[in-house]
Amino acid sequence: MREGLVIAVAQPRCVSFDVAANALIHADAVRTANARVVVFPELSLTGYELDADTIDPSDPRLAPIVVACAETGSLALVGAPVSGEAGRPNIAVLAVDGGGASVAYRKTWLGGAEPDRFAPGDAPAVLEVDGWRLGLAICKDTGVPQHAADAASLGIDAYVAGTCESAEDAARQDERARRIASDHDVWVAFASFAGATGGGYAETAGRSGIWSADGAVVVQAGRGAGEVVRTTLT
Length: 234
Fold this sequence. Notes:
The chain contains four helices and 14 strands. The longest helix has 15 residues, at 19-33.
């Protein structure tokens, strides 16, 4: 019988375009969370700056996160722009642990001005951690029922996403999380930006949270940058 999975959602303070500074902030959040999995918002390493340079998983600026994960035994799911095929980058989730970083998922559904620069990913992705299957998503993916359905068809225990929403759209996250949980009988974890994050967002939604498979909120952060909340999936 598998053990519970301790998972945290973080909404770190963000310095637009400054990967080195943001990596240090991420490392502090990993240590604060002290969880097996720590989820971060969309494009968390650069801020929601669509013209930020892509980040290679081997980038030495990610070293503080790698070290923090090694110390805590954590897996950090961080947001970054990465190189893609045919010269068009992707918005991605990097999976970072004590051994380094790799691209775990590329955002499938793009919104707003994102298609002007980025290409969509072509498939859902599942990451297995200690026997728990986590379906990965990024922001607009969560609002497309087909995305959650495609992830659920792969056999998942939880649907995990990094998001970036305006403060005015904070309620949207809760609505989507409840729908996904109840439609597919899975845990849902959303890590949302809080505070300013570039790209025209002077204030973002915050309210990162984790919902049980019946759609009930289990833990939820406030609107302040720097907050981390966690629970154990059972």
